[in-house]
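Q: I have two molecules that I believe assemble together. Could you output structure tokens for the complex as a whole instead of separate predictions?
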Amino acid sequence: MTDSVFPSPAAGDSTRSDRWKPNRSLSKLSQRSVVILFGAFAMVSVATTIGIISTLLFETIEFFLEVSPLHFFTATRWTALFANPSFGVIVLLCGTFLTSFIGLLLAIPLGLLAAVCLSEYAPRNLRAVLKPALELLAGIPTVVFGYFALLMVTPFLQNIVPGLSVFNSLSAGIVLGFAILPTIASLSEDAIFAVPQSLRQGCYALGATKRETVTGVVLPAALSGIVSSIILGVARAVGETMIVTLAAGQSPTLTLDPRVSVQTMTSFIVQVTKGDAPYGSIEFKTLFAVGMTLFVITLLLNILSFWFVRKFQEKYE
Amino acid sequence: MQSEQASPTAVAGLERVFKVENTSYYYGSNMAVRGVNLEIPGNKITAFIGPSGCGKSTVLRCFNRLNDLIPSAHIKGRITYHGVDLYSKAVDPTELRRRIGMVFQKPNPFPKSIYDNVAFGARINGYQGDMDELVEKSLRSSALWDEVKDKLKESGLSLSGGQQQRLCIARAIAVEPEVILMDEPCSALDPISTLKIEDLMQQLKENYTIIIVTHNMQQASRVSDRTAFYNAEPTESGGKVGYLVEYDETQVIFSNPKETYTRDYVSGRFG
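A: Yes, here they are, computed for all two components at once.
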């Protein structure tokens, strides 16, 4: 029974309370079970994260029991899979840096220009076609991008760039740039498009031209979103695997020459996991040390992005 | 008095800033405002009142051609500013908008410092004088200087709603316009902030011509010298079209209007 704690209405008016009898006898129980069920689902992702991080952490600690961190971060040779191994992760970091740098050099300006063009200059109906097309680019499997780099872009570039080897960071970087371009363009576009129309009108009303409105008011107002889209793009470039594995090759070289083959952290991980590194061997543990390094870099980027958005986000009503 | 009454839409004996002649405004093929005729006198406050959808804001936005930003919108008729046709090809809307400032319904300060909010318009318009001086002068004119002089570097968005609106007025004044258009400038503000803006308008009219759109009839009667009453009527296609019912001295509109619609509206019988 659902006896109310409130006093019943005056006598003669009792019909009124008869009309209101909610059927909620099971409601408290179902409410609780829903909370528990949904909570369990939410916990799955938390547990997975904790599992991955702790595995990474334990294996990394084991690795550093055998190889000194000083050697890991300062040695200039990476020969992890050789008989007399040297673990200078800086070589892999350099490969990752080089391919990401080339990719971002392409993706940031092109992505931002595409975003400004889509949001501010393109007619509404053109935007409605172009934006999904751009986002479709993000849906192409990166292995396709990788083969495209190796079989189309590299041969083409070899005609222009003398001394370009079959595997090189230039071609990998360029195609990597196109792979992350939709991330930067689409998220920046969202941020720019979200700038309230009233700000643009306020700016025009002062006698500003379109260009002055875009550069003077709209872009500064969207800055936090633009920067976080770039940081996300950087994180994607650093973590990108298939393109660099296929197009940049597997030779760990400490170089900033974009014409030669380099190995990134991700392509090293591919190399080890597809080989047969026995469980518990030093090669096996290396995998986790490199994975941990990668994880820490992307985590820092995410934190940076989060901090930036919190600090610079403008609050509009 | 008699001569003025003869043609209440004209502004006899006063400097005529705008002249609107038989102007209609369209959004696509829908007529939004029909056949407006009126003249705006200089250094006075002219109020546009009327129910929602009567086209008062649309007419206001014709004066600085802000409606140009709506792709399908177009005008028929003629609006002149000191005798120059506003919509002729020779007129550059950006130059026009520097001369005719605007304050919007909701305060819309830029996400910049208070100083930069005021200086922005002057910078893009190539102001050659001393910027600090201009910023201070503009903030003093908008009665905000004393409240913000110690925090000019702080974001304009950190101010209260009323302060933000006065910042927007300072921003408009900073480019030294002749006219200030105000589109319901107090509708998002509390009564005390509203009072400050109204006091400010009385000071500003010495140097500027002001046109204010307002939903608030008391405000129109308090602040304005002349009032235009617009009304909306249903069209055959089910939409609404606005038109100018009556335009006269504010005192006449509120105490002795000629049209029944005006009388009913200002006495609160509809709207």
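A: One point stands out. The domain at 94-192+221-312 of chain A is CATH 1.10.3720.10 (MetI-like fold).
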